[in-house]
Amino acid sequence: MPRPISRRARCRSRRRPRRAVGAGATSVSGPSLSLSDAAGLYRDALKQALADAKLKAQALADGSGLTLGGVESIAEGSSPSPLPLAGKMDAAGSSTPIEPGTQDVQATVTVTYSAS
């Protein structure tokens, strides 16, 4: 479930780029927003990916008349997250609002099962 940033953090974050540009900065990038429990959410996504892999393997085994055996190997992989494009602020201090949004946590696994 996405957690919105607080109003106070949003207001503070709008002032900092303006101050930096006003002090002579020629480029400003950011902010960089992240999840507070990304590792825990990724572990949950891995568990869901494993469960999904088993359901798919079972359906394939059932459809081909085989009996699904045990796990022979597991390989973990993750999908890269898209990075936002960096924008430039003009010297006049234009403001780009920071709005709450969502971030997806994805996990990819490759599981090899035995079958007979």
Concise account of the structure shown:
The chain is of the alpha+beta class.
Could you give the topology of this structure?
Elements: H1 7-22, H2 38-64, E1 68-77, E2 108-115
- Spans where pLDDT lies below 50 across 5 or more residues: none
Distance between the termini: 41 Å
Order of helices and strands: HHEE
Using the CA coordinates, give the radius of gyration: 23 Å
Total beta strands: 2
In DSSP terms (H or I, runs of 4 or more residues), the helix count works out at 2
Report the biggest beta sheet as strand number plus sense, adding barrel if it closes: 2 strands, antiparallel
Overview of this structure, please?
By secondary structure, the protein is α+β, with helices and mostly antiparallel strands. The chain has one domain (7-81, 89-115). 37% of the residues lie in helices and 16% in strands. It is built from two helices and two strands; from the N terminus they run ααββ. The chain has helices spanning 7-22, 38-64; strands at residues 68-77, 108-115. A two-stranded antiparallel sheet has the order 1-2. It is rod-shaped, with a radius of gyration of 23 Å. It starts with 6 loop residues before the first helix and ends with a strand. The mean pLDDT is 75.
